[in-house]
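Sync notes, pocket subgroup
Present: LS, DG
LS reminded everyone that the earlier model was apo-only. Rerun requested with adenosine-5'-diphosphate included. Inputs:
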Amino acid sequence: MFKKALFRKQQLKFMFFNLIAFTVILTIFGIIIIGQVQRTLFSKSDEELLSFKEMMTEHPSRGFESPLPDDKMDRLPPREERQREHPNPRIIVLKWNKNGEIINQNEIGSSFYESFIKGAQLDKTNLNIITNTTINNLYHFRYLLFETADSEGEIIYTQLLINTDAEQTIIDNFEWLIIVCSIIFIILSISASYILSRKMMKPIIHSWNKQAEFVENASHELRTPLTIIQNKLELLLTEPHEKIMNKFENIALSLSETRRLSKLTSDLLTLARADSAETQLTKQILDVDSFIQKVCAPYIEIAESQDKHFWLNLNCKVSIEADEVRLHQLLVILLDNALKYTSDDDSIGVKTYAEEHKVVLEVSDTGIGIKEENMKYIFDRFYREDKARSRETGGMGLGLSIAQWIAAKHNGTITVFQNNHKGTTFKVKLPK
Ligand code: ADP
């Protein structure tokens, strides 16, 4: 219950962060697009204001109404030049004296002056900077204010205004479009965030469950031998005068459980290190066949002592780069299992051969075999096909997990299949 609430909380957190990320990205995107559109739309008006200013400062005597000489009309000079000669009629010119009064009312036209300009004040904050303004809270203009001198040398301020209502309408509509689209995308991103956060949580939940299962199994496996050792020692303490010889069985059992405990803790440590990717391989060049021969030598003797037949078929004849200690550990796990799960007169064999890019090591036995339906579980930690039997043989279900990790660490694989209807074959493939 607690676990579910924790996962839910984490998922909501992921969802929230995803949502924030989507919103921030969309907002930045919107701001950039609107800014760009604004800049593009106003650039034409700004260009015209600047060329008008240039015309006024270069030919101060010429006004807005100055005609273009006829001879120039025939030759049609470049557009920029023509614009300078014949400025845009949309531009309104206001001239202010130092006291902030408009001095060219007659040029503007009295009705225009009365309706729009009359109450206007001279604002020198944005001198020489093209700025936006609205007249009567209704009409949008861009203007450029600059200082000049009149014919008597008196300082006057010239304000060039250009109406930008059309541009502003496009920008307003565009802003609306962007806002509406952003809202729609943010709503859509809520569901996208939900799906993404669920996907993100899946591997976390999976490894959390695996970890919890691992800890539970490990504690269980540790507790059993500890309980046995404790019981046996307590039993010995009840009869302190007894001879060791008479209590031999109890002592031997305690000792074997201690060995089991020691093997279990070292396996657990190997897997814990494997999980934290702490263990690094020390690779060296190994001649596969002679290495296998060396590892198998003691097993040939053990098999003989147990009336089992051990055969070797070594045909690899190549060397590989591998960690000798880890590869030895992998083979020992497979050979130990082969011995554990076979009876008298069974046979155990190791075969090596090379494929195109791989070296193959096969460990086969004619023992009890593994049921087809259980094969997919045998590399899982603590999995044992027959728990009661494994306890007898000392198995804890960690060996094959370690073998799989070693194979993977060498960029190889380990697979299992039935050995000709009796027993098992493990196939390890390692890169050449
Ligand atoms: P264990 O220490 O129990 O042998 P492993 O991880 O090595 O743990 O093996 C997991 C299980 O796979 C074993 O409990 C056993 O059921 C099965 N198994 C492994 N090797 C063999 C084999 N050669 N023959 C039959 N069963 C095997």
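DG: The two ends are 50 Å apart (CA to CA).
LS: The pocket of adenosine-5'-diphosphate is lined by residues 333, 337-338, 341, 365, 367-370, 378, 383-386, 390, 395-400, 424 (CB under 6 Å).
Action: DG to write up.
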